[in-house]
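To close the chapter, one final illustration. This time we ask the reader to focus less on the individual chains and more on the assembly as a whole: which components sit near each other, and how the overall shape emerges from the parts.
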Amino acid sequence: MLVFTIRRLMQSVVVLLIMSLVVFLGIYAIGSPIDILINPEADIAEQEAAVRRLGLDKPIWTQYWVFLSSALTGDLGASFVHNEPALTLIFDRLPATLELAVVAVGLAIIIGIPAGMIAGLYPDSKVGKTIMAGSILGFSLPTFWVGLMMIMVFAVMLGWLPASGRGDTVDLFGVPVSFLTWDGFTHILLPALNLALFKMSLVIRLSRAGTREVMLQDYIKFARAKGVSETRIICVHVLKNIMIPVVTVLGLELGSVIAFAVVTETVFAWPGIGKLLIDSIGNLDRPVVVAYLLLTVTMFIIINFVVDILYSVLDPRVRLENTKS
Amino acid sequence: MKSIKLALSATICAAAVAFSAGVQAADLTMGISSEPSAIDPHYHNLGPNNEVRRHMFEALLWQDETQQLSPLLATSWKPTGETTWEFKLRKGVKFHDGSDFTANDFIYSACRIPNVPNSPSSFSIYTKAIEKIETPDSHTLIIHTAKPHPLLPVELATWGVISAKANGVTGNLTFDKSGCGISSWPKTADFNNGKLSIGTGAFKFVEYIKGDRLVLARNDNYWGEKTEWDKVIMKPITNSAARVAALLAGDVDFINSPPTQDLPNLAKNPDIGLAQGLSNRVIYLHIDQYGPSSNGVKGTGKPTSKYEGEGPCASKECDKNPFQDVRVRQAISKAINREAIVSKVMGGVAVAGGELLPQGFFGTNPGATPEAYDPAGAKKLLAEAGYPNGFELVIGTPNDRYINDSKISQAIAQMLTRVGIKTSVNAMTKSVFFKTRNKYEFSVYLAGWGAGTGEMSSPLRALVGTRDKARGLGGTNRGRYSNPAIDNLILQALATVDDDKREALLQKGSKMAMEDYAILPLHFEVTSWAHRKGLTYKARADQYTLATGIKSAK
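The assembled structure is written out below.
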């Protein structure tokens, strides 16, 4: 376990370093933020002054060195656009995204696993076939289009739910959350469902395949022979055994939902970090993009780590010492 | 089933309550296409920031819907000599914290502007003409400039005044160019959290959550006409389809820049009203006229001499630049059917242009008409210039910056191909476009220009003047047209305080630039706003969306 952790940590540092360098050079290659941020009325002298103020006149390697040395002290730089620390910008908006991601993944699990198991247990029934057909729609329709359709139907035509924004929030342990107020809850419903659709379909397919496979296993037959109730077989023996692929995929999906909910956040004007990322890329706001991707990589590393540990909990045969990290 | 019914009725009740509450409290919710980068009025000189600034922080003067100056914090202003101006300040104006507005606050703001750390675009371009400020009394300013500077009043309409007292400066300040002896300046972040967002404007700061909303409340002690809105909530909704949906769903009362393709439907909708007006933004083509060869041209043969100076042709071999010949530039202008672009590509929501500002703006020539569509004439000119079989051309264009920008370029490419210039379009996102343009990689590119001052000196100085750091000309002249005669006219106009004389100089400069095809104006954007029925908005030429201008229809 300890060796595993240390090896993981060292690999992570290398990944972070390479990542920062690639993003740094990549954005440098696209162009200078001043070209976009400066008022066109500015004369040549002011254009040059603005470049100097943001330190963009220095050679790229000097800029990277400045970034790296302050990053080691925990300072990832200030946004070119907002002149606030990049980390502050990200953490201010992280709760909104986390909330959306958790609700979306929650929906995917609550609806996806039972639906998938039903489809797996009764593969030839009408219900099972309907669920499978629905899941195809779920991952083949583009999120963007589905989001706009949801807005058209539920917000514009029926007028049941608001079309955009986050609504009222209340502080829960000092973090603003919206699902605890009625207004906030109605606001989160559509974007969360929009975001959940793809994962839900994925979970349905994984659980169905898992269920069909597990149902044929010897230990199920043995449990039946032993006279274990059908409820217990499904809720304990089947459920636990189909969870491994589901946990793996959901772990990664949770990461990607948090990091790249860009489309949903844009369509629903959800004030999360996905929208921050897309705006920052558009403005070539390098400090924010670099900090964002560094955080994302860190998050994925942690999630993978947790997933590995969850494996060993779900399946006692897995030993972490033997896992190639 | 019962619970579903309950939930449904609860939703309907909640919606009804929310709706009635909205009506009673006179709140206005706006969906805006882009959000300011900060609330600090001096941090970033760019459209969205300037919009928001106008609600909370006032300038000495106001630019009305047509960019004419009118009194705001100054009640009157006049030149008292070639290089001195007198501004009488309004008495009895109070900041949001209750303190009085005096000349000292103006000086403090002017001192701070060049000292905002990390400003990506500083307002100092609007303060650098100020040499000295005298204050005979607390409500009079005598401003000295180094050279005659007719743009001083309009420049003083572009930035807001912050309170010296709220920022901890109580003594009388003396203006100088190096920071007025103040060592510590307020931080941009303290404006975003509301601590220092203290202005004199019709709205007070309530709350700003980046990416989510900016909430403003009515300033009940405002010196002027008070707004009817208790609260204004501005929500950034960057996606235009989502913005329209939010309006249709009733989430927001007012949106800016609805996409042109939605305008016909919005106009038909009985619950929605539209406000539209001609803007000061011209969409133009800049043409590379710098060297003997040009990067985006093929089939014109070898250049006659070596390319020198900045640009991609300095390091690689490019074909001859045909655009140094005025006949070729004229041919391109004649080949473009501006009326077709306006009616087909822009859906009629634009006005074809014959100058860099719409008719009626200061410095335009009355009766200047758009170049007539004349493909036969264009072919003839090309043949005369030595290109009877045309040549190949790539035109650069952004695809997410101006209304329908890349579609316009594609239409132009087809029109040019029809007269023999085989044209292809290189469309890219704005960040890449501006970088490529600034490295002079385009032979012809499409861009837009909004004249912040509302007079011809703005586009002439930036787009037509020879690039020259010392003289402040050609800041955005990436076609690198250069004509000393026009430069002299611009500089002369910029130093002529007498309005009539200045207008005559600018008219002459504009006429010369158009006759020399220095730059090809295509059309002026018409800006649209959409709102729920029962509101009115006076369209602004500067394209700003201001809650102070949104009123209930009577």
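The two ends of chain A are 11 Å apart (CA to CA). The CA atoms of residues 42 and 50 of chain A lie 10 Å apart. With these observations in hand, you are ready for the problems at the end of the chapter.
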